[in-house]
């Protein structure tokens, strides 16, 4: 005679090594959200914060990050980067340069939008 579902013993939790356990990776939103090392004002970022921004934007190549550090690219310099400078820094793909320029442009727009809210 089988027991009813309500009489079934509770299932034990899976171990981390179980193939059905999802990997413990941070969500995409968590990776993009500003952390303690990135202030909302990109003008105050040093080269390390710029590299953190690059990683979160999908530009994690160690060589590229090192070139940004060597050239001391700070947050205040980001708006002045253009396609030719990005190519000199090691972003050879036109699509990648345009993608990074888009992210930089969005940074500047976010600051302007914040300023408009603060000063009506």
TrEMBL record:
<feature type="region of interest" description="Disordered">
    <location>
        <begin position="1"/>
        <end position="44"/>
    </location>
</feature>
<dbReference type="InterPro" id="IPR013761">
    <property type="entry name" value="SAM/pointed_sf"/>
</dbReference>
<dbReference type="InterPro" id="IPR001660">
    <property type="entry name" value="SAM"/>
</dbReference>
<feature type="compositionally biased region" description="Basic and acidic residues">
    <location>
        <begin position="1"/>
        <end position="17"/>
    </location>
</feature>
<protein>
    <submittedName>
        <fullName>SAM and HD domain containing deoxynucleoside triphosphate triphosphohydrolase 1</fullName>
    </submittedName>
</protein>
<dbReference type="Pfam" id="PF07647">
    <property type="entry name" value="SAM_2"/>
</dbReference>
<feature type="domain" description="SAM">
    <location>
        <begin position="45"/>
        <end position="110"/>
    </location>
</feature>
